[in-house]
Amino acid sequence: MEMEENQEEVANQEVPAVNLDLVKQFLKLKPPTFNGGMNPVKANEWLTEMEKNFWLLRCDEVQKVDIGSYLLIGEADRWWNLKGVREPGMNWALFKVIFKEKYMPRALQNAKCAEFERLKQIGEMTIAEYEAALTNLVEYAPHLVATDEIRARRFEEGLRYKIKRVVRPMVLPTYTEVLDRAIIVEQDEDERKSRCFNCKEVGHLKKDCPKLRTRANAVSVMGYGGRNAMPGGNDNRPSNPGSMSGSGNE
């Protein structure tokens, strides 16, 4: 509902005639609008989505500014009218600079960069969850992972110890290889955790092993039968000692 309202607000804005056809093509892609707010993640996601669409339509630098500013609404649109339109020599690179200064201030970017450096796979976090979190934060610390191999080493460093001790000695050269191997090790760990130490089958633990329960039931039945067979501990003992011959009462 909010997206539809934002699209309607965009449609009601004045469109530069020179870019009208391109804007129409762009809007068919249902691009996100941006209404401001001090949320660096949201601002960065908007820039990323815009650049993906720019690439698809092969927009030039001026067209990027025209369309990007056209999709600013609310507070962001007011900011652009006060700040952006007055900047001389405006192109997309400059647009991103002043946009980040406003909505992705250095202090917040530094905080995200520090979060990237500290991130580790802890608790019940899966490899997939850890990788997604790292990918979301790497946008704020590209200088820390300048090459694919450096990124692979950073990914290794944050892995849970049981996984890292297997993956790290392999010294895999690419991020993709490290990620694939870490997933395989995690799957092996999960299988080991769910493998029964009694019957060696996967899917239950030893305490729930059906073979142990069957054996325990068999022992219980055998013990119960033995007690019935020997009620007094001696089946050969006569029930009435006085009935024995030679008792002297003949």
From TrEMBL:
<keyword id="KW-0863">Zinc-finger</keyword>
<keyword id="KW-0479">Metal-binding</keyword>
<feature type="region of interest" description="Disordered">
    <location>
        <begin position="225"/>
        <end position="250"/>
    </location>
</feature>
<dbReference type="InterPro" id="IPR036875">
    <property type="entry name" value="Znf_CCHC_sf"/>
</dbReference>
<feature type="domain" description="CCHC-type">
    <location>
        <begin position="195"/>
        <end position="211"/>
    </location>
</feature>
<dbReference type="Pfam" id="PF00098">
    <property type="entry name" value="zf-CCHC"/>
</dbReference>
<dbReference type="GO" id="GO:0008270">
    <property type="term" value="F:zinc ion binding"/>
</dbReference>
<protein>
    <recommendedName>
        <fullName>CCHC-type domain-containing protein</fullName>
    </recommendedName>
</protein>
<dbReference type="Pfam" id="PF03732">
    <property type="entry name" value="Retrotrans_gag"/>
</dbReference>
<dbReference type="InterPro" id="IPR001878">
    <property type="entry name" value="Znf_CCHC"/>
</dbReference>
<dbReference type="InterPro" id="IPR005162">
    <property type="entry name" value="Retrotrans_gag_dom"/>
</dbReference>
<dbReference type="GO" id="GO:0003676">
    <property type="term" value="F:nucleic acid binding"/>
</dbReference>
<keyword id="KW-0862">Zinc</keyword>
<feature type="compositionally biased region" description="Low complexity">
    <location>
        <begin position="238"/>
        <end position="250"/>
    </location>
</feature>
